[in-house]
Design goal:
CATH topology of the largest domain: Serine Threonine Protein Phosphatase 5, Tetratricopeptide repeat
Order of helices and strands: HHHHHHHHHHHHHH
Distance between the termini: 29 Å
Radius of gyration: 19 Å
Strand content: under 5%
Number of strands: 0
Helix content: over 70%
Shape: globular
Structural class: mainly alpha
Number of domains: 2
CATH class of the largest domain: Mainly Alpha
Number of helices: 14
CATH superfamily of the largest domain: TRAP transporter T-component
Largest sheet: none
Length: about 300
């Protein structure tokens, strides 16, 4: 689920409308209307990664400003966490991987920037969950407690976990951050109980990725979860194939399986209006890049 950017003019029109409304409406109503519009924009369909990259910073900064005034707006918190996580992955962390061979300093800078974005995204989503369910963080940290999570909040939990887990992956030299990995694993498990089909396999794929990455994780179980995610997506998600290639085949030294999964990602075709259009394009690009790197990876 990668950033779905509309034109900046639409957001500007929304701002102008908010200014006009402020003459006759309470300030809270104006801000809530703007939050609704921004949350709705985040769900648009985009197939141009470069346009999405260029438009994203304006959307992210504006959304953060509005969310600060309307912290209880769950839809905006979810949209912001999603778009910030996607931006960090597609246009910052991936770029770090691409430039690392030629410029280690640039790659390190990009990864530190990505880590900061992941941290911000996770905090936006976790704060929204805490507002909606007071005591949520304490319950998550207590293995004996029930974590309150209705199906309507699974999207918030998914993006909180995706951003949090990605932050941890880039903080291997910070044990106090890595120590939170069990909380991320539990959050995803709770979310999957609430709505196992959320995101057409995205939630199951994230759980598989975390299982494969955690110390002592069961890679066979993770592989089965990846297969379940592929089935739930009906073969329409390039991200799941790439995730399985990087999480299962690569660490196991299975080059043939690695390349087969990446070619399956490249073969994914999008239906008209699919919300996965941009995500799939970004992941096809990563799959092609990983195929080029295969001789050096094995």
């Amino acid at each position: 689920m990668i950033i779905a950017a509309r034109s900046l003019s639409l957001t500007c029109l929304c701002l102008l409308a908010a200014i006009a409304l402020s003459a006759c409406s309470p300030r809270a109503l104006v801000i809530n209307s703007l939050a609704d519009e921004l949350a709705g924009q985040s769900q648009g369909v985009e197939n141009d990664p470069e346009l999405a990259r260029d438009a994203a910073p304006f959307y992210l900064k504006l959304s953060e400003a509005v969310l600060a005034q309307q912290p209880g707006h769950a839809a905006l918190a979810e949209g912001l966490a999603a778009r910030m996580t996607e931006y960090a992955y597609a246009f910052v962390a991936f770029e770090a991987d691409r430039v690392e061979r030629d410029d280690l300093a640039a790659a390190d800078h990009l990864r530190r920037r990505a880590a900061g974005l992941y941290q911000r995204a996770s905090r936006h989503a976790l704060r929204a969950l805490e507002i909606r369910h007071p005591g949520f963080a304490a319950a998550l940290a207590d293995p004996s407690a029930n974590v309150p999570l209705p199906a309507s909040d699974v999207g918030l939990a998914y993006w909180a976990a995706a951003a949090w887990g990605s932050w941890i992956a880039l903080a291997k030299d910070a044990p106090e951050i890595v120590a939170d990995l069990p909380l991320v694993v539990r959050l995803v498990a709770v979310a999957e109980v609430a709505d196992p089909d959320w995101g057409n396999g995205a939630l199951t794929s994230l759980r598989a990725t975390l299982e494969a990455a955690r110390p002592g994780g069961d890679r066979a179980l993770a592989a089965r979860w990846f297969d379940a995610a592929i089935a739930r997506a009906a073969g329409g998600s390039a991200a799941v194939f790439v995730a399985k290639a990087e999480s299962i085949a690569l660490p196991a030294g299975q080059r043939e399986s690695f390349e087969t999964l990446l070619r399956q990602a490249l073969a994914v075709r999008d239906t008209v209006g699919s919300p996965l259009t941009l995500q799939n394009e970004v992941m096809r690009r990563r799959a092609a890049w990983l195929l080029e790197q295969a001789p050096d990876l094995f």
